[in-house]
Each structure stands twice: as C-alpha cells, then as structure tokens.
Amino acid sequence: MPGSASGPAIQTENLTKEYPYGFLHLKKKTSLEGLTLQVETGEVFGFLGPNGAGKSTTIKLLMGLIFPTRGHARLLGKPTTDVAMHRDIGYLPEQPYFYDYLTAAEVLDYFAKFFDFTAHERRERVQRMLQKVGLETAGKIQLRKYSKGMLQRVGLAQAILHDPPLVILDEPMSGLDPVGRREVRDIILELKRAGKTILFSTHILPDAEMLCDRVGVLVGGKLQGVGAPGDLVGIKAQEVEILFTLAPTAQAHAPKNDHAPLLAKAARIGERFRLQVKEEELYAALEQLRGASAKILSVSQIKPSLEEYFMHLVAADRAQAAAVEVSGK
Ligand SMILES: Nc1ncnc2c1ncn2[C@@H]1O[C@H](COP(=O)(O)OP(=O)(O)OP(=O)(O)O)[C@@H](O)[C@H]1O
Ligand SMILES: [Mg+2]
Fold first, then answer.
1. Best mutation site among 56, 201, 218, 314 for ligand 1, i.e. most ligand atoms within 8 A of its Cβ?
2. Using a 6 Å cutoff on CB, does residue 230 contact ligand 1?
3. Is the beta carbon of 139 within 6 A of some atom in ligand 1?
4. Most buried pick, 38, 53, 124, 221, via CB within 10 A?
5. Could you tell me if residue 323 is inside a domain?
C-alpha cells in the first residue's frame, strides 16, 4: 500500500552522472559525483546548491528520466527503473510547461486520467486540488492568462493530485512572491502532517531552514554537507552584536581611538552604533565601550544562518577549483 513503505523513502548509493562531450566524446562533464544519501519516510528534505550544482540532475535520476553512469537509487524500496513504483511519486519538474490553451481544471483532469479514479472522483479531486493551491476561482481560465506563480501552483497541484506518499519538487518556490511562497510552504507542511515524504530543491534558504528536517548542500556535483539546519549552522563560530549610543562629544573621537580598536569597527545606524565581535572579544569590547562612556542598548548573540553556512561551502569549493586551475598551469 502506498505510504506504508518502511525503511528509507529515498536511498542513493554512489549515484553519478557524466555527460560526454567534445571530439569523439572523449571529455566528460560530471554533473553528479558519487551521491550517497538517505531520506527517511516522513522527512522533509531540502536539496540546496548554487546554479549548476546538480540538483535537477539528481532529481531527474530519481525520477528515472535520465540514467546514472554509475551507482543506483531506490525510491520506496524499489529501483528507479520500476515503472509502476512511479505512480506513488508526485513530481514537479523545474519550470513545468503546460499547454497554454487549456484551463487549470482541464490540465488536472487530464493528469487524473492516468489513475484509476471514476469521473466523479476526478471532478471532486480536481476541485479540491485547485482549492488547495489557491486557484479555485482561476480554474476555468486558460493558462496563457496565468502569471508565473499561478503556473507553478498548477504544477504543484498536478504533483500531489494522486495523493502520493513521496513528493519530489524541483524548485517549488521559484517565481513565487512572498504570499505564494508562504502558500507553498503551508502545502508542504500539510503534506508532512499527512505523513508524506518530501524532497525539494531550492535556492531560497530561509524557506529550507523553516521547512526541512534535514538539508543537503550540493556544490559542483558533490554533496558537501548534510544535516538538520540547526546542527549545520552550529558548526560556525558564534559572534555577538552590541548596539550602543555615544555622547556627541565622544562620537568625534570614537573611530580614531587607538585604545579602542574594536570600537573603531562599529557601524553607525542613525543615532545608534552597531558593533559585531567574536564571542571571545565580547569583554574587551565592553571594556572599550565603558572607556568611551557608551550607553549599551543591547547585547545579543548572532545566530549564524543557513545562508552563511551555504556561502561558506560554495566559497570553499570555488577556492579549491581555483587552486586546481592554478596548479594545472
Ligand atoms: N543534458 C546535459 N548535457 C550536458 N550537461 C548537462 C546536461 N544536463 C545538465 N548538465 C550540466 O550539469 C550540471 C548540473 O546541472 P543541473 O541542472 O543538475 O543543476 P542545478 O543544480 O539544477 O542548477 P539550477 O539551480 O540552475 O537549476 C550543469 O553544469 C549543467 O550544465
Ligand atoms: Mg535545477
């Protein structure tokens, strides 16, 4: 029965995709290199990575749309080549395309015909899906009049139409405004509450941070980090933010004061100053602020964001790539 699969929902081992190119196809571009990953049943897993990282390649391999050069993947315990298993999967491709002159209701009705629903069930289900993605009033309008965000929602409705236990979404928030993103987030959370497993790729890191039990960061075709967002950001050193004001007389001297080197790093924001220091520099900074007769408004810990962790991995990969290029010359 769909949804009752025990064990991991997605399992990949050494999954690799190379594209040959150039003269006699002698060169090869590795879009995905040795991906070994497990997504548990009921998990929301976010796949993060910069452009060209290999996110869509991975998703297409999982969907059986392209075939691995090496390695293998299993979905719901079955190999990706098992055609019947794909009925239990919902898939939103990156930039889905639907025929312009159909209405959303017609498109969804067409996709519903791939499943064993009666005509009545189909009608009822299509209406429910249109409502779920906020298109109930637009369902009778042709898609050529839809905005990008509305088309994305049609794609999402198509992906979850048949109530699949595993949902794979390639950039579900792309092209959506903050309201649309919120709606997609709510749909993903509702799917999670219903016990579904969701894997989605995204560039929108706060959304991933808010939704995902775990995220995987893919850079240059390689999985560079995987874990709960909270655990990943904890890896980075903590910093502290101090907000303060200075008496007008002290302001003229503060940035140039040699006895207060930390204070010189403070940035002015209107009437206030903001100083960011490492945790171990906090007492020295407070001492310097006391010396300058500063009035301290707040001291708070800066929680490193998933974005910082992500940027750190991307920068490390680029530095490594540059080093290889230089040593190769
Ligand atoms: N059919 C193909 N032939 C050759 N190279 C390909 C092919 N498909 C993808 N690639 C390359 O593989 C790499 C990974 O592409 P992929 O589409 O998986 O990235 P992505 O992480 O989804 O990026 P984006 O965030 O832009 O969607 C890219 O360098 C891309 O140019
Ligand atoms: Mg992509």
1. 56
2. no
3. no
4. 53
5. no
**Residue 53: is it exposed, middle or buried by C-beta count within 10 angstroms (0-12/13-18/19+)?**
buried
Establish if 253 belongs to a structural domain.
Answer: yes
C-alpha 224/C-alpha 216 separation (Å) is: 8
The total number of structural domains that make up the chain: 2
Q: Is 31 in the pocket of ligand 1 (CB under 6 A)?
A: yes
Among 53, 44, 39, residue whose Cα is nearest residue 10 = 39
Is 307 part of a structural domain of the chain? no
Query: Band of the pLDDT at 4, cuts 50, 70, 90?
Result: very low
Q: Report the separation in Å between the CA atom of 56 and the middle of ligand 1, taken as the mean of its atom positions.
A: 7
Separation of alpha carbons 217 and 292, rounded Å: 44
The residue segments making up the domain with residue 286 are 239-302
- pLDDT of 50 higher than 70: yes
Co-location of 173 and 275 in the same domain: no
Please work out whether the CB of residue 60 comes within 6 Å of at least one atom of ligand 1. no
Mark whether 87 and 149 lie in a shared domain.
yes
pTM to 2 decimal places: 0.82
How far is Cα 314 from Cα 24, in angstroms, rounded to an integer? 33
Return the best residue to mutate from 18, 55, 222 for the ligand 1 pocket (most ligand atoms within 8 A of CB): 55
Residue 7 has pLDDT above 90, yes or no: no
Q: Can you read off the two tokens belonging to residue 267?
A: 């940035």
Residue 24 placed within a domain: yes
Same domain, 21 and 130: yes
- Which ligand is closest in space to the CA of residue 19? 1
C-alpha 29 – ligand 1 centre gap (Å): 10
pLDDT value at position 257? 59
pLDDT at 6: 66
At 24 the pLDDT is 84
Q: Give the pLDDT score at 247.
A: 83
Q: How confident is the model at residue 1 (pLDDT cuts 50, 70, 90)?
A: very low
Could you give the 3-state DSSP secondary structure of residue 63? coil
Cα separation of 205 and 312, whole Å?
14
Last residue of a domain, one of 187, 209, 228: 228
